[in-house]
Specification:
single chain, alpha+beta, Cytochrome p450, two-stranded antiparallel ribbon, EC 1.14.14.16, metal-binding
Length: 445
């Protein structure tokens, strides 16, 4: 248990892979875990043999956080779960093909104005990135967006951030492997339960407000509309209030902090490599002729896509994904994996595998433009198979458009010569975040 309390667990587990190989086993109390550390073995488990490893561990803490297993991200594999995910995925896809692009453009332009208002003052932009990405989800889910100063928005973000950071604590994770500890006082777990209760209260209030608008024929939240069955049609499975509530939680947590963390990492790496930023801006200007990028332009902007891929490779925002569970006896890389074994895909380790990536710790976007680009297959920041990240299509569009808009309009410069460049190790919990840093957003002429 204490070995797993390292301050940067993905780096520690990756180090073990260099000593013991890309698949190894750990014992933690009553829990047996198999860690997968290469894209090859991760794909074998999650894609090729997805039906064997689509389960989620029977987790005491996950059940508490997910309202009893109604979450798509944490719920165990079942017919009910498959129907829930299918409906939620369909609703998201309809949003993507309808309103999402306009919502991202709107938030990207608003973010531009926020940065212009700073007037070249050194600032920590992480909160601004969080507000921009959060507003896309709240607009889809609740039909409303918020200003950075909104007390409701600040309370929601504080609550969700605390849940993510607390749940990643080893003192809480230990409750899954050592049931006896549940009888002892555990202040971090007590705090976690208070934050979960607050989260549920905030989201319940928002969903109730949306329903009242629906009754008054003023529907502004497409996601909630798409989650409901068409009028006159009797579905095989109907989503309960708990399902819809936890779908909203999944999207708020998965669609806010992850994309905001990606943007912070992107600026951090560009501060370390200013020549990459120059080359990226040159591509945007020459290809788009002064226009803003559209998502359909991604095939015309290979360097921008390469930069995005390289940031996702070096700092996958969910470095250990979410644990899987073997739902039957199976094999990975020839090794027997008994039923109920917990399987952890170490995406961070797979993205730093020296057998796949030349100079794996260096920020080098050009690697995605060289040769046959076979390295794209080894890039798996969203997982794979039945448990592929629900919001993958949303995240990809956000990352492309936000990065394109920001780098078209601004040159990002270090805060001042006395301050060190951003730390690139980061802080690892459920989400891998950059440590706070300040940057100057200098408007392009």
């Amino acid at each position: 248990m204490f070995e797993l309390s390292h301050d940067h667990l993905p780096i520690y587990l990756t180090g073990l892979a260099r000593r013991y190989g890309n698949i190894y086993q750990l014992h933690c109390g009553s829990t047996t875990m198999v860690i997968l550390n290469s894209s090859e073995v991760i794909r074998e488990a999650l894609v090729k043999k997805w039906s064997d490893f689509a389960g989620r561990p029977d987790s005491y803490t996950a059940a508490k956080v997910s309202g009893g297993g109604f979450s798509i991200s944490l719920g165990d594999y079942s017919e009910e779960w498959k129907s829930h995910r299918r409906l939620a995925h369909s609703a998201l896809q309809r949003c993507v093909s309808g309103t999402l692009h306009c919502l991202i453009e709107e938030q990207a332009l608003h973010l531009k104005q926020v940065l212009l208002d700073y007037n070249k003052k050194p600032m920590d932009l992480s909160q601004d990135f969080t507000v921009a990405t959060s507003n896309i989800i709240t607009k889809l889910a609740f039909g409303k967006s918020y200003e950075k100063s909104s007390a409701h928005l600040q309370e929601m973000h504080r609550c969700l951030n605390n849940i993510v950071s607390l749940w990643g604590s080893p003192w809480i994770s230990a409750l899954d492997s050592f049931p006896l500890l549940r009888k002892w006082p555990n202040p971090p777990f007590t705090r976690l339960m208070k934050e979960v209760a607050k989260r549920d209260e905030l989201i319940r209030d928002q969903l109730d407000e949306v329903k009242q608008k629906k009754q008054s024929k003023d529907l502004t939240a497409p996601l909630l509309e798409y989650l409901q069955p068409p009028e006159g049609r009797v579905p095989k499975w109907t989503l309960t209030e708990s399902h819809i509530h936890m779908t909203t939680v999944d999207l708020l947590i998965g669609g806010t902090e992850t994309t905001a963390a990606f943007l912070s990492w992107t600026i951090a790496f560009l501060l370390h490599r200013p020549e990459v930023q120059t080359k990226l801006h040159k591509e945007l200007r020459s290809v788009l002729k002064g226009q803003y990028p559209h998502y359909s332009d991604r095939h015309r902007l290979p360097y921008l896509c390469a930069v995005i891929n390289e940031v996702l490779r070096l700092r996958p925002v969910a470095p250990l994904a979410v644990p899987h569970k073997a739902i039957r006896d199976s094999r990975i890389a020839g090794y027997l994996i008994p039923k109920n074994t917990i399987v952890i895909p170490n995406l961070f380790g797979a993205h730093h595998d020296p057998d796949v990536w030349h100079d794996p710790h260096s920020f080098r976007p050009e690697r995605f433009l060289e040769g046959d680009r076979s390295c794209l297959r080894a890039l798996i920041p969203f997982g794979g198979g039945a448990r592929l990240c629900l919001g993958e299509s949303v995240a990809k569009m956000e990352m492309f458009l936000f990065t394109g808009y920001l780098l078209r309009d601004f040159q990002f410069l270090p805060a001042n010569p006395e301050e060190p460049l951003p730390d690139l190790r980061g802080v690892a919990s459920v989400v891998l975040k950059a440590k706070p840093y300040r940057v100057i957003a200098c408007p392009r002429a």
